Amino acid sequence: MQSFPVAGKSVLVTGAARGIGAEIARRLHSEGARVSLVGLEPELLAALADELGERARFSTADVTDAAALEAAVRDTVEEFGGIDIVIANAGIAPPTTSVSTIAVADFERTVDVNLYGVWRTVKFALPHVIESRGHIVLVSSIYSFFNGALNASYAVSKAGVEQLGRAMRVELAQHGVTVGVAYFGFIGTDMVETAFARPSAALLRKAFPAFLTRPAPLGTATAALLRGIEHRSPRIITPGWVRLALVLRGPLGGLDRILAADRRVRAAVEVAESA
Ligand SMILES: NC(=O)c1ccc[n+]([C@@H]2O[C@H](COP(=O)([O-])OP(=O)(O)OC[C@H]3O[C@@H](n4cnc5c(N)ncnc54)[C@H](OP(=O)(O)O)[C@@H]3O)[C@@H](O)[C@H]2O)c1
């Protein structure tokens, strides 16, 4: 495994105002990295930059806004002298509902933030990461290969992120750049808390063994991310059971038939569609 210490490195993190993005920025900063916090909420980003002090800066940018994102990258390079590591983390969860009932705008917004937002982030940062022969992390999910019932736009976007990462990993190898894809199960953040509070999501969870949907502490995701970056790992996987699920992803696809017939899944779809 290659060793890639983060001390002194310039790291750009999107979705850094809260959740996994904010926490990994804290971890990286405590290891001596310079962190550029990019996100939607200037007050939260400014408060985090203040909390961290030296070696932290922020830019307000929506990852669906190419010009704002390009400016965030440019400002980071101007202040830090380059970019060594990018963590394309910003993401949203759509309303928990079916493909039949989700609003067109909600479906497309999810893909725009979660997939095209990641694409724009890496596209603009790439020349700088190539220059530094650095590392890129794309935050995907178990939904890149799990069935996305009542969460289709999210699953579509995360499957796309995985493919983007795999292609880049091969293309960038000759430039000395490494690419990691993060496969997180459920992690205890605002995103999951909000989604799990919905009645249809609560019903859907009953169709799965409890351990699969029990949120892991935020620290497990950020510890895995830090380890993955320090070793330029191609895959960042947590909690542990996700590793087995990844190995079995082919056969697991056969469970769609069982899910389609499960009365709890059917009840969840009914509740979602009648909400
Ligand atoms: N939590 C999980 O179980 C889990 C599992 C697998 C993958 N993930 C992925 O991990 C990443 C982080 O999620 P999280 O759980 O930390 O969620 P979170 O607590 O909701 O944080 C997401 C962050 O992304 C920001 N964001 C959303 N849309 C944005 C946009 N258009 N432009 C810029 N920033 C934007 C949010 O801004 P606001 O502060 O304005 O909301 C927030 O700061 C996401 O990509 C998510 O899909 C999470």
TrEMBL record:
Against Gene3D superfamilies, the record matches this protein to: NAD(P)-binding Rossmann-like Domain
Q: Name the keywords, alphabetized.
A: Oxidoreductase
Key word Isomerase present:
no
Cellular component GO terms held in the UniProt record:
membrane
Q: Which InterPro entries match?
A: KR_dom, NAD(P)-bd_dom_sf, Sc_DH/Rdtase_CS, SDR_fam
> Transmembrane ranges?
none
Question: Which parts of the sequence belong to the Ketoreductase domain?
Answer: 9-190
Any single GO molecular-function term of the entry would be: oxidoreductase activity
The record's family statement is: Belongs to the short-chain dehydrogenases/reductases (SDR) family.
Q: What is this protein called?
A: SDR family NAD(P)-dependent oxidoreductase
